[in-house]
Amino acid sequence: MRNKTGKPDFSASAPPPPLASYDYPSLPITKNRQELISLIENNSVVIIRGATGSGKTTQLPQFILDYYSEKNAPCNLVVTQPRSIARWVARERKCTLGSLVGYQVGLEKMATEHTRLIYMTTGVLLQKLVGTKSLTEYSHIFIDEVHERTEELDFLLLVVRKLLHSNSRYIKVILMSATINCSEFAEYFGTPICSQMNPAYVFEVEGAPYAIEEFYLDDLCSLIPHRVDEPYITVEMYNVAVSLIQSFDELEAKDQRLGFKQQYSSSYVLVFLPGLGEIHYMQEALSKLVRKRLQVYPLYSSVTLEEQNGVFLVPVPGYRKIILSTNIAESSVTVPDGLIDFCLARHMVCDKETSYQSLRLTWASKTNCNQAGRVSKGYCYRLVTKEFWSNEIPDYVVPELRAPLANIMLKVKLLDMGDPRSLLSTALSPPNLNDIERTVLQHKEMGALSLGNNGQGQKRFDGELTFLGRMLANLPVDLHLGKMIVLGHVFGCLEECLIIAASLSLKSFFAMPSLQQLAGYRSKLSFAHGVRSDSIAFVNAFKAWHTSRNKGELRHPKDELEWGKENCIQIKRIREVAELYEDLKKRTSQFNMHVIENPLPMDYSSLHKQRFILQVVIAGAYYPNYFAQGEMDEDLSGHDPKTTVNLPPYSFLYYKQLQSLCGQVKSIAFDGSRGHVEFSRMTTRGSGVLPEVSLALLAHQRHPLDLFVHPSDEVESHAGSRTICHMRYVVEVGHFWGFQAGEASMEKQRYLTAEINSRELCPVPVSLYPNLLCLAPFSEGDEQDVCAALGACILLKETTLMPHIHGLPALITMLFSPVIELRTNEERTSYTGALCGLGWNVQSHEAVLPEHDTELAFDVKFGVEDITEINALCGAINRLVCEGPNGPLHLGPDRINSLQEDCRERLVRLFTKSPPREDLVPVYYEEPNKWNQVWWIPVKMEIVQKEDGKNKGVLFQLHPVTLLNM
């Protein structure tokens, strides 16, 4: 709240209650208490620099709280840290969490009107400031860990700086960092004085909380080569870690013999590894140490709650507990004994060209590695050389772009402070103009920003926020999931879409126990109910759990845990999904989108229809992320890959054992040295991939079939004594490439060979340019980063396989594409295909977003009436969610039900046309992916939509229809 002078007004709020005698812990920051209070009270922005564990996060806010309590003055403090810190501070002050000290993290809020010190995540604070466009709700804002430089944190700094210089001049801002160099932050928050920028004050907290004895690879062994050309764990480095764990016993025994205090006691050892694959490898290596008494616990995001709890149990006397963890334990697990760190981490990065995110293995920063010794003395073993640690490991990671600008762009539009380019240019690390343009175009493709004059002038970098965009900005989920929720409301499956959005936004509640992953996959497969969709499996599992709870079958926690164990579902995580589901339901209700409570039971036909509509909604939300099913695997010798599993070579030797292992199957056939197990298809299962095939493939990846075979040396000696050897010859040379022996082909071949062989091979240190042929391998001394493709496969997660309907790919793409251009044959008597995407720039005649353009070649016959039906469905959707400036807020329940039923019927009629559309042989357009190819056609029916107050910012544009000659 603010008074007329612009100062924060907390007169209606009571001051902090009088505090009992409180002894501050002996931390480095404690001795600077009075000096820090004075600095904060006399400066608008103060930057506090101190080592991890110096007390910045926990003690400094308490200094200010106590100061205002002594003055009997009101205050309201916010700190950007998770709830664990709030619990620690409340316990330290012996007060109830949620009273004087509280927190707000995502859905969970534990605070009252009397709370004076609240801890919240960066995202929650950012959402609040964007919504209020002011800082005056708080007297002091503490922004911690500013050195991490995430995109969200950078935008929070931008918003705070912008508001601090406009309508919130009297708010105190405190930035806290563990990095050595704070000059960048000081200059960013500088104050103009006498035509000069005066940087913000930087105060350094001297000293470290506890001594940490650090060891490096060259302290452990000097014979192991350390590769630094790329972040990777070699077999030798795994062996070093295993040997180090083994040596702890020897060191302890040596101390005991000499009568020394056990300074190497490491009953707990935490090993930091970058990912799940590395954890499994290390776990397998430790399992071979049969003589060592070790309790090994993997700790990563998808382990069960029981496995997580085992990490914190006291080890059995005489045993050593080994925790193999990803960076999930950097701040949540404090091990008082030993820490082994490979100094590697996987970070989410975003490709600048495609905006697709992926996990990339990189060297961790010093800030992330400095975790031991936060609460007590500890020993840290870093498996890199000391020189590499000092010179190559970065102090902190500054990601160029770890996540797309999509969410940030919507918040910029909600702030309504001008052109996104101008506002984002004031960021600490401004994004590239190309990134801003690409983000704007992707929002237009999604419907969050209006198309307007697409690709022209300033509209390339801006667009008007639509009703969908406003809604997406207020939903705490990925933008595609937010669009799915809106489409779910349109087509009457809002409940299912809310469940999917909640499930995909959090860690999967399907348990994958480290030694029983096949059972976990089997459970997920059963919940899919024969539909090849991870999303629908989430829906069915959630509804089954929710129904059992409502019936009282899971009244006791023990019963619920047992149910989760039987179904391989993690109860804690499915409860978190339920909380997010309820939160999303409340948020959507504010936009007049309501879940139908206690719906009537559906018959089989209605269930089938509802499932199909849900699949279309999922596809619409994720346009244009569509993939076609690959061709049949040639290794199956013509067998159906949906019902057949391939066996290893020479499997016919174990025919009887295979029969007993596979059980009742349709057949076990052999083709030469290869074998195939074919499963029978039940008539009620449709034509999809059989569950037996999926389970067999997963079982082969995790637990191969165990066959009883003789040792190889015994077989060779036995066979050699009875075998007459003949000369062997090559039966099959495998794949090869060929070309026609015509003169034209031969000329091309000669030209290509001469072109390649005539070039001089250059070493990499020269300046690289396209089409340059370089010598390999690349040396470690190369000055330039050279990327090599490691594979041509894309890993798809949380997929949905669409039903087999003629023409479905083309219909889906045309329905949800912002712009389409129809292709016709030369006689203009039929449509042959369509180009779908974001259209073209009318000035440059180039595609606006070419990488998202899709050239379709129709395999069924579409007519003018089909395109008209698509436009009619788009218009029906627009009437439901886009009419008027407030979207559906002005519609009553009866009107909403009527429009929903109209959309559902139009959708089903479009995809299930009777009689079915005729099949066509696809004819590919001679100039694919080229726009504006129908300008010469004399008859073209343009669909004009007026962007007045009623139809402004529609979700789907109506497509122009090229008329055909009859």
Automatic annotation (TrEMBL):
Domain (Helicase C-terminal) ranges: 243-416
Q: Which reaction does it catalyse?
A: ATP + H2O = ADP + phosphate + H(+)
Query: Under the GO molecular function aspect, what terms does this record hold?
Result: ATP binding; hydrolase activity; RNA binding; RNA helicase activity
> What are the residue boundaries of the Helicase ATP-binding domain, all occurrences included?
37-189
Indicate the principal place this protein occupies in or around the cell: cytoplasm
Any keyword Hydrolase? yes
Matching entries from InterPro entries are given as:
DEAD/DEAH_box_helicase_dom (IPR011545), DNA/RNA_helicase_DEAH_CS (IPR002464), Helicase-assoc_dom (IPR007502), Helicase_ATP-bd (IPR014001), Helicase_C-like (IPR001650), P-loop_NTPase (IPR027417)
What's in the GO CC field? cytoplasm; nucleus
Q: What is its EC number?
A: 3.6.4.13
Specify the enzyme's EC class, one word.
hydrolase
| Keywords, alphabetical | ATP-binding, Cytoplasm, Developmental protein, Differentiation, Helicase, Hydrolase, Meiosis, Nucleotide-binding, Nucleus, RNA-mediated gene silencing, Spermatogenesis
Q: Tell me the compartments it is located in.
A: Cytoplasm; Nucleus
Protein's UniProt keywords contain Hydrolase: yes
- Biological processes, Gene Ontology terms: cell differentiation; meiotic cell cycle; regulatory ncRNA-mediated gene silencing; spermatogenesis
What family is reported?
Belongs to the DEAD box helicase family. DEAH subfamily.
Q: What is this protein called?
A: ATP-dependent RNA helicase TDRD9
Organism of provenance: Oncorhynchus kisutch (Coho salmon)
> What gene is behind this protein?
TDRD9
